[in-house]
Specification:
By secondary structure, this protein is mainly alpha-helical. It has 2 helices and no strands. It starts with 17 loop residues before the first helix and ends with a helix.
């Protein structure tokens, strides 16, 4: 029986910082334009998009 080592589940990378960064930027823009909720939703979507692109480029998938 061949025993293969398990892959490391703890991946550390910077791509996960896209979501909080997007939320904070969206919160700031929403606060300045008096549309906080819209800014948060746009920032969240942008954060997910940045995270997906960063993971695709860095090969973290």
């Amino acid at each position: 029986m061949v025993i293969e080592p398990e892959q490391n589940k703890n991946q550390s990378g910077v791509s996960g910082l896209g979501i909080p960064a997007g939320l904070l930027i969206g919160m700031g823009v929403g606060y300045l334009t008096d549309e906080l909720t819209a800014g948060l939703f746009i920032g969240l979507g942008a954060g997910f998009l940045v995270m997906m692109v960063a993971r695709a480029i860095l090969g973290e998938w």
